[in-house]
Design goal:
Number of helices: 8
Shape: elongated
CATH architecture: Orthogonal Bundle
Number of strands: 0
CATH class: Mainly Alpha
Helix content: 55-70%
Amino acid sequence: MGAVLTLALLLLSSLVVTRLGLMPVSADGTHSRLEARIMPAVLHASIVRHASEETNPVRLNEDTLKAGVDTYKAMCARCHSTPDGEASVYGQSFYPPAPKLPEGMSQYTDSQLFWVIKHGIRNTGMPGWGSMLSDEEIWQVVSLLKNSLDLPPSVEAEWSTSKAKSAK
């Protein structure tokens, strides 16, 4: 009986909170402590669950990495900056702020990064690029992000030219 009553009170409380608009939803607000503690785990678990186990099908070579740089500069750098650039003011205006890439990429597999780029992350400002980029272009960006600390000199030169442009 106690469990049923507890469940009923929990459901009623949830209904009251949601129907009365008691949960803040402004993009310039901050998460509650509970939300801030729970959301990273929820996000990671959801990505792990929904991403396939597919292996990156593009060959890792200079052409692939240069193509990844071009796509990254065109579609990603405005929010995520580049490794040696300053954090993007635009990306930092989001709540939560856009991560400065490629920091934190080691926690995700190639297929999980592919899934995030293709489908986006709801309520974060991260769009799903699947309707604008081909799977091959997305895999090229994944290759760049996962290998950005060990780029061939010619690719590093292209990556470096984007640093000043993306930091604004």
